[in-house]
Amino acid sequence: MGEPLLVTDRLTKVFALRHGLLARRVRLVAVDRVSLTIDAGETLGLVGESGCGKSTLGLTIMRLYEPSGGQIRFAGHDLAGLDARGLRDARRQMQMIFQDPLASLDPRLTVGQIVAEPLDIHAIGTPAERATAARRLLERVGLAAHSADRFPNEFSGGQQQRIGIARALALQPRLLICDEAVSALDVSVQAQILNLLRDLQAEFGLAFLFISHNIAVTALMSRRIGVMYLGQLVEVGPSQAIVEAPRHPYTQALLGAVPAPDPARRRRRHAVQGDVPSPIERPSGCPFHPRCPLAQAICAVEEPQLRPVARDHQVACHFA
Amino acid sequence: MSKPLLEVQNLQTHFHTEQGIVRAVNGVSFDVPAGSVLGIVGESGCGKSVTALSILRLVAPPGRIVGGQVLLHTDGTRRDLLALEPAEMDHVRGVDISMIFQDPMTSLNPVLSIGYQLAEPLRVHRGMSSTAARDHAAALLDRVGIPGARRRLGAFPHEFSGGMRQRVMIAMALACGPRLLLADEPTTALDVTIQSQILDLLLELKDEFGTAILIITHDLGVIAEIADRVAVMYAGMIVESAPVAAIFAAPQHPYTRALLASIPRLGHWPDRLITIEGAPPSLADDIVGCPFAPRCPYRIARCVAERPPLIELAPGHAGACWVAQAGGLDDG
Amino acid sequence: MARYILARIIGLLGVLLAVSAITFVLMHAVPGGPFDAQALEHQQAIPQAIKRQLNAKFGLDRPLWEQYLVFLRNAVRLDFGYSFSSSGRTVVQMLRDQWPYSIQLGLLTLAFSTVVGIGLGILAAIKPNSWLDYGGTLVSIFCLVMPSFVFAVLLQFIFAVRLGWVPTGGWNSPRQWVLPVLANSLGPILILQRFTRASMADVMRANYVRTARAKGIGERRVMLVHVFKNALTPIVTVGGPIAAGLITGSFFVETIFRIPGIGSYFVTSIQQRDYPMIMATTLAWTAIISLTFLITDLLYALADPRVTYLREQ
User: How is chain C split among helix, strand and coil, in percent rounded to 5?
Assistant: First the structure.
């Protein structure tokens, strides 16, 4: 098996803001001591609702945000300790695709230029070789080679996402972070893109960090899933275990709320109460305790830590 | 058998754009029985939102309703909404039929307090005084689950979360007790736990007030959760219409089947998702034959030449497919 | 909020200081002194000896920095000295006597052009591409191409001289207000009409306007309550400087209609090298425009509850 490809150790990201009428300083803890691992060639899914920090975690791992604490080890190297050159080399192996396909493509460049741009930046090969590589990549993701001469806005949403994927593959990365990569796509297009991602994973041995608010999609794509709430990882384990036997009350609530496309299985009508809280006003102790059906006195006082409940399955709860 | 609350017959709404005439709604017919929930499901661009907007005549230029009838049956009367004068239409909106929209962030006026926006239909339609309207508004907010309702009347939309704003929208829409609520993707922009709260709320209010709901969504899970009947739209037309159980258990249109097959479901672990090749047709083009034919695995010659009408295949279950009508959908 | 206002006022004082220094330097950098210009007007050179005496009397022979400090010392007590061009009157006296006329003209113009400009803009937005819309645009184009002084003289000629409906000038009776206000309104009406139309057209596309229509409250209410209130921000933005410009008088209109305002001083003081007047008018203008910006910022907070003047990093 060897060492995992990516390891984060108590990774933290804090934003300092001024908030409210008196402009008091507040700390927004977007990512709170998250430790996770991704093996080479595997997919780790990350689910949660708005404000849980999953996207911020992805951006912090890529060091698009500077971590406020904790460690990131990629292929054995500590990312925090890298200088600019070292970071650039590391970045070749970690790429990202984003939620809004059109917004992440430069409208003034042709598709071919967009896909070849990473090769340009890292000065790989001659310009002719880069152009050829770009065309090959476009074909690999299911677009015609001559798409390279057209502009992004001439394509549909699904096709634009394919362009983004082609670009991400240009440097032959080992890890692909997919940040809500299919959330903006229609259902039928979504299926095409998900199949494509799985094929690419099999062919290139890619690891994925698959971030999404859609649990069904994430469960399908990922071998393991992490569930985040208010910046903390509250449960992590194999997809099947998480979906069929969730241990954390929040995970149970989340799964219970997903409407199943099967009228015979209409869920019981009591959704978890309350709003998804703002990360600026974090509850004390366990972040979920104000909404938790199992909450006891200790939950408001002491923050639960992730502890194993089964093989490869951890939960942060006093009562799970 | 009594008349349904709403009868839409052969509705056509076109957009006159530079690329030509876009037939966003191309001959759509359906009924909404009083007190029931009809779900219209389809992917983006199929015309489902425009259909709902057409019912209330809220389609903005360059869109225009060019044909059909929208019949509203209330208190023994029958009105064709498309034939009403604008002033009469204003008496229908908010009173007989209300609408809530997808994005609660931008669908509430940011510079007016929610108390004002809630009270507005009460003052305009019911002639209530400011105080009476405020009292009623506070009661409405309370009913939709906003804590501390009276205090929050003076608050502004940006002080609320997405889920709360959607509750405010629902309260506003139901203020004058309409018979029909049009809900255009009401939960799409919300987190899943909030979505389930809102769906619960809609069902509660429906039971309490007897309001019928026409819900527009692309999410088959939401449909399964809340709808009594389902209409599937594709390329501006309804391709299948059936009770909700039948749509999921025995879909009679290739598009419906393909859609159901391509969504990830919890607890199912296929190696590959089934996809629909190709893309929906452009609505600016004249579509000859069945709009789904180019992508349909069951396609026969007749499909390309002639558009299949929506006809009943089983009691209460209609489909627009030549192959299905010949019974050939389940062979092989 | 109080802290915000305080900070702005302190900032205003800083701006005044900077402007005074820059103006002072520029003023003295322009060739020629106050007594040369007057001499030109009289087509007679003032003898050097007398010129030197005059310069000494007004302290113009001192080093520049000293003159500036003297100026500052007096300015904080609102003593700007005697005007060089008007014998025996201090600058402050002149402004005090004559500014009210300009303010009156300005406020009347503001009221008139606000009603007409915003009104035409709203009508144009409600019925785009109709006669109302084109009519409003026509009025705006007229305002744009017609120089205010030509228009003023035209109005005077037609209505005062030929038709005799109103007097040709002066500022004592309301009948004398009509033509000057009309002539002065050209620029403001143009700007307000265009901005109102554009801002309303923009807001009308918003989702919440669709929601308002869906409530069946009637198109008029939708426009006047829902759309207009949201359209106000750009209108207020542009209205502020317009108001500031109006209450500091108009050179052409005041001259043509013989209104004893201060508009002319902005121009003539520079020609005449009337240093005290230059400083006073420049600083007055600066103070007014800064206060106007502050007021418009506060008006935003009033019109739009999302505006709260807190800083986020």
Answer: 75, 0, 25
d(CA C50, CA C35): 10
- Contact between A39 and A207 under an 8 Å Cβ cutoff? The reply is yes
Check CB contact of A49 with chain B, cutoff 8 Å: yes
B92–C216 CB contact, under 8 Å? yes
C-alpha C209/C-alpha C182 separation (Å) is: 35
Give pLDDT tens digits for A194-234.
999 999 999 999 999 999 999 999 999 999 999 999 999 99
Q: What is the token pair recorded at A165? A: 């994927």
- Tell me if B218 sits within 8 A of B41, measured CB to CB: yes
Number of H helices, E strands in chain A: 10, 12
Cβ distance of C214 and B169 shorter than 8 Å: no
Average of pLDDT values for B135-159? Answer: 91
Assess contact for A289 and A277: CB atoms under 8 A: no
End-to-end CA gap in chain C: 19
The interface predicted TM-score (ipTM) is 0.89
Q: Strand, helix or coil at C203?
A: helix
CB < 8 Å from B in window 24-43 of A: none
- The verdict on a CB contact (< 8 Å) between B192 and A213 is yes
Shortest CB distance from C308 goes to which of A16, A17, A21? Answer: A21
On the 0-12 / 13-18 / 19+ scale of CB atoms within 10 A, B221 is buried
Closest CA to A307 of A248, A219, A242: A248
Q: Give the strand order in the sheet containing A94-97.
A: A94-97, A175-179, A207-212, A43-47, A224-229, A232-238, A313-315, A307-310
DSSP states along B52-83: HHHHTT-PPTTEEEEEEEEEEEETTEEEEGGG
Alpha-carbon distance B240 to B219, whole Å?
Answer: 16
| CA nearest to C204 within chain B | B60
B230 CB-near residues (< 8 Å, 6+ apart): B38, B39, B40, B41, B223, B240, B241, B242, B243, B244, B247
Pairing of strands B311-314, B317-319: antiparallel
Q: Which residues of C touch A20 (CB under 8 A)?
A: 310
Angle (CA) C147 C149 C153, round 5°: 120
Q: Could you tell me which of A13, A86, A72 has the C-alpha nearest to residue A37?
A: A72
Q: What is the pLDDT of residues A231-258, one digit of tens each?
A: 999 999 999 999 999 999 999 999 988 8
Q: Contact at 8 Å (CB) between A283 and A300? A: yes
Give the integer Cα–Cα distance in Å for B276 and A107: 28
User: Do B267 and A244 make contact, defined as CB atoms within 8 angstroms?
Assistant: yes
Residue C309 phi, psi dihedral angles, 5° rounding? 55, 50
Q: Which residues sit opposite A207 in a β-bridge?
A: A175
| CA C211, chain centre distance (Å) | 40
Q: Is C140 helix (H, G, I), strand (E, B) or coil?
A: helix
CA distance C22 to B250: 83
State the pTM of this model. 0.85
Say how many C-beta atoms besides its own lie within 10 A of residue A70's C-beta: 18
Query: Distance between CA atoms of A176 and A165, rounded to whole angstroms?
Result: 9
